[in-house]
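Reproducibility note. Readers wishing to regenerate the assembly model reported in the main text can use the exact inputs given here. Chain order matters: entities are listed in the order in which they were concatenated for prediction.
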Amino acid sequence: MRATARKAAWIAAILACAAGAAFGQAKMQITLANYQIEPTDPNGESLVTYGAKFGVQFVPVNIDNNKYHEILNLKLAAGEIPDFFYLKEADKLGNYVKQGVCARIPMDLLQKHAPNMLKVLAENAPGYLDMGKVKGALYGIPAVNATNAFHSPLVYRTDWMKKVGVSKLPTTLAEFESLMYKFAKNDPDGNGKNDTYGLSQDGLNAVFGSFGLVPFDHNSKGAAGTDYWVLKDGKVINASIHPDVKRALELMAKWYKDGVIDPEFITGENQGGYWALSHAFIKGRIGFSTRANFYHWAMPGVYDDIDASGKRIPCQPGAIGKEIVAADPTMTIGFGQPLKGPTGKQGIKKYNMLMNFYCFGKQIEKDPAKMAKILAFMEENADPDFVVRNTIKNGAKDKYWELLDAPTETYRFIPPYDKDTGYVSRIGATLLRAELPFPLKAPREQWAYSLSYNKLGIDNLIQVGLPVATKYKVDLMKLRDETYISIITGAKPLSYFDEYVKAYLAAGGQAAQEDANAYYEEMTSK
Amino acid sequence: MPSAAIRRSGGDRAFDAFNYLVMILLSLTTLYPFFFLISSSLSALDVTLGSFSLLPRQFTLENYAKVLRNPAIGAGYVNTILRTVIGTSLSLLATFCLAWPLSKRSFPLRNLWTGLIVFTMFFSGGMIPTYLLVRQLGLIDTIWALVLPELVTAYNFVIVRNYMQTIPGSMEESAKMDGANDITILFRVILPVCKPIIATISLWVAVWHWNAWFDSMIYMTKASGQVVQLVMRRIVLEGSDQMTQMMAEMQRQGLVIAPEGLKAATIMVTTLPILCIYPFVQKYFVKGVMMGSLKG
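Running the prediction on these inputs yields the following structure tokens for the assembly.
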């Protein structure tokens, strides 16, 4: 039994080698590692179709996205650098370039083979291509998330507001404070118990935002967390040590003492499962949140969607909206604007628009023919025709998806693919994807524009991870979180913030700051 | 025979009652998460996280039907069963063949060989060298990548060797006098005496194989080769990582993220088989560990 199995394995291996050799002579092979949620079939439909179109053989390097960098590093150590790969953590570009993993991408090649891609980036995300440069040379093509142009939503429970007798959504920090006290003290849920709070962890961002700061990236933890950099007296500093943070913390400590901030804010509003959900809000513990993105909070019919026949219909709820409808149908929510703070600043957190980088393996640095082929499929993602670029992204039109409305670029997945998120990975479409910032025309985004959520978001000055900052990041973030929590809960006095700033600078923050300033000067001097 | 029983004081009884209570509570805390899973797996898809009880809300088997219809689960199951069966039998064979000679006091350089094996318990090559080795042996994408690297673990070897050392040498001598050769002695005399330790080691190895997923993630690059635990992990983790989901979500709006009930059903389906085997081998399990350790 064992012997036959082994024999079979040998024969299979020999056959596979022979087949590979035969193919290798016929066609140029390009190995791809990109975002995927399921392994790609080597003969996946998209790989075959586009392979034939560009005259190459696309070979998937299946890397589980949940442990992407761990497994990519294994392959790199074994000398198997994929020809085309994405950096899930944009932070890592500097290190990978230093270690000689990424190929330099010549600008003239880009101009020749990917003019549309350059145009889309230049028009909709000026300056982002420069983020892929290390010491003046381009190593990574940025994946830019256009939806992140919209800032965090400020969501209030309007049914609670009615109960406590407030009709206008707050626009200043003072109005906000008064409303939060009413949410906590005036029994807005009317159950006779003192079991409600104003806000929890994600709500704090609205307060920091009214000082023009984003010191706290609450949704991602550890190495994936983002550092926010802001200007102070012409110098770049980490937002978490900005002196105005102290004023915000002073306010929060007072709110915490008065029972306005949910004591569970330390562990956050999400209790596991789908990341975007704010369980504290859905369960009626708090009356305000800024969690996730605006579209997660869409309630049924808040904007008009387009149905299969092209007619306008009320939209489906977003992920949080769906939970709210199921948990408490009487709940109503309203979308507020960033708060004006005592220093005259007004803003709120906005995610980095820079998501990932697309890199080329070092081994093809001297192989412009292969680079041209890779740029060719990337360029397909930048095609002015929506149908062309959505086909490389999501597979064949009218098989996997159908266009509902051309002007708003609205489409839908054809059953059963509407319930099957994995198919794009299996056919290889995700391996050929390049995320580019096309202007958003869909009804959902039009709704966000109507809320003015594209304005007043606080931009992160440095979105790419600088090597020095990345080195100390995890420790510094831990220090920051501990400090903030102990000041808010009253375990440490407010004066502890000054000690924190000193400790931060001593523990690598100073070096990171100098690095950041050097980078910023270089970036802005052009 | 109640009359013959030692009379127990009120204090004794109170102590017992207290003991039982604490033990029951302790068992409940370990059982609770399990019940929670069973209950969510049997609840309707649209029951939200916000409302929950120990009894399933809107009882349905739909979650299980969906999980079992997933083609990846089926293929994963086959791979897991295959690696568990092949891996466990080969592991047992190799471990016993290694432990038997090294349990003999007369074996030349016995302590050196044993020392070399024990050495690997404290110092390991790490992930990258192991990956390189497996790759250069050409095992990638074969079942052997999941079986061979963990064929003999030093810990299991030590337990088996120690157990074998407790078998009296006279048993072997008498067999020899009856004309048996070494192989016959191992298989017909020694192994039957080793039943408890065989049960223990095979359970350990089988459970390890059943639960392992990381090696499949590294070595199996095709969907058809992946084990069921990896498929389960993917379903359960779907949507928990914000950055992972961003891209897919832009089109999907988070509407098709696997509901909690489906995740719970997946976990149940993948853990149930090993859970069913456990009670039957458990008696050997405890006995075997004791034997291995006490007489070492």
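We highlight two features of this model. The longest helix of chain A spans residues 496-524. The longest strand of chain A covers residues 354-360.
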